[in-house]
Amino acid sequence: QVQLVESGGGVVQAGTSRRLSCVAFGRTFNMGIYAMGWFRQTPGKEREFVALIDWDGGTTYYTDDVRGRFTIARDNAKNTVYLQMNNLKPEDTAVYYCAADRTYSLSTATEAYDYWGQGTQVTVSS
Q1: What letter does residue 117 receive in the DSSP assignment?
Q2: Which of 30, 36, 54, 108 could be stapled to 59 by a disulfide with Cβ–Cβ 3.0 to 4.6 Å?
């Protein structure tokens, strides 16, 4: 059984920074063989892709809305993936989810991911 647990959400002012963390738990889970992604969702909308990272951090990809402001990183020894969010905007307000892709598709589609966390709320006030 694999469990992903996000943390770091909260209420922040526009223009400031926040770092989200996602820790993977599982007796035999080795995050090092999974691609990892961050997604976000607002009420009434589809869950949307934010960022992904390959197994060793050598490849990253971002949606246009966050490129240059957000950075995804991972520490496989800690089974943890991070999302550093800088220059936050009110439109970044959402529930943020991390996800693990065991097929290593490096896809932006939610269907490609096998494990999901419960989400952490980020609210950016103007």
Answers
A1: B
A2: 54
3-class secondary-structure state, position 91 = helix
Q: Sign of the C-alpha dihedral, residues 107, 112, 39, 24?
A: negative
> CA separation (Å) from 90 to 94, 121, 122?
9, 13, 10
* Residue range 48-71, pLDDT digits in tens: 999 999 988 889 999 999 999 999
Is the predicted pLDDT of residue 31 greater than 90, yes or no?
no
Q: What is the C-alpha separation between 101 and 51, in angstroms, rounded?
A: 13
Task: Express each pLDDT in 35-50 by its tens digit.
Answer: 999 999 999 999 999 9
Between β-strands 80-85 and 70-75, what pairing exists: parallel, antiparallel or unpaired? antiparallel
Q: Is 82 exposed, middle or buried (0-12, 13-18, 19+ CB in 10 A)?
A: buried
Dist. CA 28–CA 121, nearest whole Å: 29
Distance CA 116, CA 2 (A): 9
Burial of 48 (0-12, 13-18, 19+ CB in 10 A): middle
